[in-house]
Specification:
By secondary structure, this protein is α/β, with parallel strands linked by helices. Helices cover 53% and strands 12% of the residues. It is built from 19 helices and eleven strands. The strands form four sheets. Strands 2-5-8-1-9 form a five-stranded parallel β-sheet, sandwiched between helices. Strands 3-4 form a two-stranded antiparallel sheet. Strand 6 and strand 7 form a beta hairpin.
Length: 450
């Protein structure tokens, strides 16, 4: 096996125990220990699954997870963070989108295609690093050819001038100079022809397949040397990548490491699935079933089997129950986790505890303007209390309410920050009281502004 044929190795959970995974999640997400433990075990089970003998592995299926909890309590964040933790391909879909045009089961397969696209992007990024140096050299040669065309005589002198120009190019001395060179352009006319032919997904697959078979077109373009280096380097990287290798590795990665997060699963549950619009809802469940059970989906990179993909479904289930799902789908989500609603204490922890907490985010944003923000402890307590009560007064949107409260609180500071360079702004409980607290006195105003 040559170095170019060696498999692409991406980070995995091989060295992470469930306890370590939970500890990593604790850095970003407050509370919800049961949900964290569930995804940590599911992630570790993937490593255990890979260690099994072939005859046993075929019969062991992923234990998919159903998260139950109101909006804004961390369902999506847990799934997204755990995927980031091991660089796993991740895609989020809303189950309700499959009911927008009624019973259209073919659309359900689009989540698998999106998962493979995510895997392809990851593998391309990793593989690009291995060919970047070579692409940079070729890009330099193309730019030098445009800056200094080869003469018919005096080849030796031309080589010396080219070497001096290359040194200036690498030092950035030519970045602002304009250059005119050939760059590749997309096949826009072909895209227009097939934009309305057939279904959206089928049309996209067919269109891209035809575009890959068409000869690449180029056009003269005038730009700066700095911009040209970026454009040409990207073109050369694309040429140097082994597309077959990237596609095969992406499919393997999606099949063995992919995570699909199906949000709003409760929106395809109807109390009466016999007539009316609930027929399409149950139809969506029936079409989700083979994807979750394990089926083969055709993508432009090849056939993907979903047998070992981890599916995490989530929903508030405020007007329905998980028991209202079709029995077959219930059986494919054996792990059920109830996430806790957020109280004042959780809001306060969310403000300050995570690595990039909300307070740290706003401090960093204002620091770009030279403004230092300082939050007094009493002010943070009042912000948490206001967010909690606003969720009770208006619609409960969980931790997202903190963003609304903080934006309202810092509205004037954000607006005036460019003229406040070098100043320090202290957020105390009086400021919270005057800017936000009074809104809660008027329920209609709270529903509008908070």
């Amino acid at each position: 096996m040559t170095p170019d044929d060696s498999p692409v190795v991406l980070p995995s959970a091989d060295t992470l125990t469930p306890a370590q995974i939970v500890a990593r999640l604790d850095r970003h997400i407050v509370g919800q220990d049961r949900a964290k433990r569930a995804v940590a075990v599911a992630l570790r089970n993937r490593w255990r699954h890979a260690q099994l003998p072939d005859d046993v592995r075929r019969d062991v299926v992923p234990k998919n997870i159903l998260m139950i909890g109101s909006t804004g309590v961390g369902k999506t964040e847990i799934a997204r963070r755990v995927a980031q933790l091991v660089s796993a391909p991740f895609v989020k879909v809303e189950a309700s989108r499959f009911t927008e045009v009624g019973y259209v089961g073919r659309n359900v397969e689009s989540m698998v295609r999106d998962l493979v696209k995510s895997a392809v992007a990851q593998v391309q990024l990793r593989e690009s690093a291995t060919v970047r140096d070579r692409a940079r050299e070729v890009a330099e040669d193309r730019i030098l050819d445009a800056l200094l065309p080869a003469p018919s005589v005096d080849a030796e002198g031309h080589t010396r001038r080219r070497d001096r120009l290359r040194a200036k190019l690498r030092n950035g001395e030519l970045d602002a100079q304009e250059i005119r060179l050939d760059v590749e352009i997309g096949s826009q006319p072909l895209m227009n022809v097939f934009s309305s032919v057939g279904g959206e997904e089928l049309g996209g697959e067919f269109r891209e397949a035809l575009e890959r078979m068409m000869p690449r077109r180029t056009q003269k373009r005038t730009t700066t040397v700095k911009r040209a280096r970026s454009i040409v380097e990207s073109e050369e990287i694309a040429k140097l990548l082994d597309k077959d290798k990237v596609g095969a590795e992406a499919i393997r990665l999606a099949e063995t490491q992919g995570i699909v997060f199906i949000d709003e699963i409760d929106k395809v549950v109807g109390a009466d699935a016999v007539s009316g619009p609930d027929v399409s809802r149950e139809g969506v469940q029936r079409d989700l079933l083979p994807i979750v059970e394990g089926t083969s989906v055709v993508t432009r990179w090849g056939v993907v089997r979903t047998n070992d993909v981890l599916f995490v479904a989530a929903g508030a289930f405020s007007n329905a129950s998980p028991a209202d799902l079709v029995p077959e789908l219930q059986g494919r989500f054996p792990i059920r986790v109830k996430l806790d609603d957020l109280g004042v204490e959780e809001f306060l922890r969310i403000l300050v505890e995570p690595e990039n907490s909300l307070v740290k985010q706003y401090q960093a944003l204002m620091r770009t303007e030279g403004v230092e923000l300082e939050f007094e402890p009493q002010a943070l307590e009042r912000i948490a209390d206001v967010a909690f009560r606003a969720n009770q007064t208006a619609t409960n949107i969980g931790a997202r309410r903190l963003h609304t409260v903080m934006e309202k609180l810092l509205e004037d500071v954000s607006f005036k920050a460019p003229e406040m360079g070098g100043k320090k702004v202290v957020i105390d409980w009086i400021m919270v009281e005057s800017r936000v607290e009074s809104l809660l006195a008027d329920e209609d105003q709270a529903k509008t502004e908070l």
